[in-house]
Amino acid sequence: MPKVNHNRIRQKYSAKPTEREKHFHRWCIDNFPCACGCGCPSEIAHHVLSTMPEKRWRRDHEIVVPLTAEHHFDLHLGNARKIEAEWGVPERAVELRKQAYECYVL
Ligand SMILES: [Zn+2]
Ligand SMILES: [Zn+2]
Questions:
Q1: Least distant ligand from the CA of 48
Q2: What pTM does this model have?
Q3: Distance from the alpha carbon of residue 66 to the mean position of ligand 1, in angstroms
């Protein structure tokens, strides 16, 4: 039997964040409040789980939003994709990435 080559086009996971991506995550946390809309200072960069055309990989280090630790916990505890949609997380992630490119953060 010949071995099947599935030729995965998309990597399931991207590699570890680069220094630039880490800097972007820090920039999001330091400059923007929690993406749920609560207005609290954010503590964590959450990698968007929802499927969206801008995402290169399932875990794309350029597609993140800042959240408080508590709301990050809530999101992962619940139906994450549904909550992301309710909070407008995919749209926010695209906005933040755009802004980061404009500010030469990314
Ligand atoms: Zn919040
Ligand atoms: Zn997360």
A1: 2
A2: 0.85
A3: 9
